[in-house]
Amino acid sequence: MNRDSPEKGAYGDGSPVAAFATPLSESALAVIRCSGGGALELAAPFFSRPEKLKTAAGHSIVHGWIRHEGEKIDEVLISVYRQPKSYTGEEGMDISCHGGIAAARGVMKILRKAGFRDALPGEFTFRAFMNGRLDLTRAESVMEMVSAKTGAGLRGAALRLSGALETEIRSLRDKLVEILAETEIYLDYSEDEFVPGGAEDPSGTAGEESGGRMPGRALAEEVLARLGALSASFKRERLYQDGALAVIAGKPNAGKSSLFNRLIGEDRAIVAESPGTTRDFIEAWISVEGIPVRLADTAGIRDGLSPDSVENTGMDRSRALMAEADLVLCVTDGTEKYEHEKDFPFKGENPRLFIWNKADLPSCPAPPRGFLPVSAVTGSGIPELCGAIAAALEKTAEGPHAPGGPEETGVAPGTQRQKELMDQAAAPLAEALELADRGEPLDIIAPLLRESANALGEITGEVSSADILEKMFSKFCVGK
Ligand SMILES: Nc1nc2c(ncn2[C@@H]2O[C@H](COP(=O)(O)OP(=O)(O)OP(=O)(O)O)[C@@H](O)[C@H]2O)c(=O)[nH]1
Ligand SMILES: [Mg+2]
Predict the structure, then answer these.
(1) Would you say the CB of residue 203 lies under 6 angstroms from ligand 1?
(2) Share in percent of the chain as helix, strand, coil (round to 5)
(3) Nearest atom, ligand 1, residue 300 CA
(4) How large a percentage of the chain has pLDDT more than 70?
(5) For residue range 262-272, what is the model confidence (pLDDT) as tens digits?
(6) Are residues 224 and 304 both part of a single domain?
(7) How far is the CA of 253 from the centre of ligand 1 (A)?
(8) pTM: predicted TM-score of the whole model, two decimal places
């Protein structure tokens, strides 16, 4: 693997760096992460047991005080890492100090004095990549692990962190390289000496014409199908990683806030008998069958203008939020006369679910077709509603199903970068197959195969350039 190609910028300069690995707030502990050659030597003069720190074995913990000019700053535990057995592959330490803002800041200040530079966003993971500890798909999954919101989201990220996508991409690339190698062999012979599909051809397709024959054609088709399935699964993967916005909307008093409280499992929104209770929208993240959903309760929308200007502003905000929604949960009061235009006086193309609320009341008739009966008060119909929300969101993220596709293996691209490179690998491969069909010579097909293999190499980082890497890692948080 060639990790020397990117120029060494500030990111990869190997100098000792430090950063908070935990948020700076009042807490029991805070962790400051340090990495780089000579890190232990640099920190030792500011530690109560300098010799102990300098000679500590890798994966051991040293207890002592961070001090400066005779003043004790904080009592800490230092986890020591020796090159190359660390996250970054460099010598390093994790300093566990007290979580108070002053204590953690005090230790950080001393580290700067000692000569540590503040780590750039994602610099630890960047170094891990440069030192061959991780490929790019795994490096990116580190960030996904941090931002995962539900168990399902975490599982996808963990699968990539454990190398499932890396293995898959490498295997697809190996197949392309194999086809390419065979193609090159054919190219090295002149046509009258060696005819693909001729007597010497191990594929045993003797007698067929050389035009249109592409060695490993079936394999190339297999790779193309797999790339298509992987790329198509990206939308669904993003749904589980980033989540979706579901907006509760409907007439005043329909029970939107009651439903919101029921779905989030706590009494957050004000519920009252009088219509026009909710003015500003409230939102909360919930998990709906593993999908992170940003659920918003909005002000009720009634037809025509209300004399109350605050209510009108609230209605404007509801409409604006609905326009952004991945799913609009249209709630109606089942005990009232239902008139579609009056109940849902809002337009838009966004997918909708229709909810027939207050089903617990005897005065509530059976819902019209297409409505889900629920009671925000008793909770009846809520599991079915959650199922319907999950199904509707899944539908918005649906891709074509392919046998052996990601829905079976669970492997999917986790970032836009990975998805785009999969498409960039698929396009020349499809073109190569098309040219072969038309009987075009192998010497114009081979470069397309190479282009495809290179795009796959970029996914794992086998082929990479400095600017792309820096751009990627700068999206990480500091301390990762
Ligand atoms: N019996 C019964 N009452 C409900 C149900 N859902 C809401 N309510 C009652 O309906 C009234 C209005 O409920 P809210 O949740 O405040 O309605 P809303 O749609 O948020 O109203 P606005 O914020 O004014 O637009 C309250 O008195 C609720 O207790 C339900 O499922 N069953
Ligand atoms: Mg309300």
Answers:
(1) no
(2) 45, 15, 40
(3) 25
(4) 89
(5) 999 999 899 99
(6) no
(7) 5
(8) 0.75
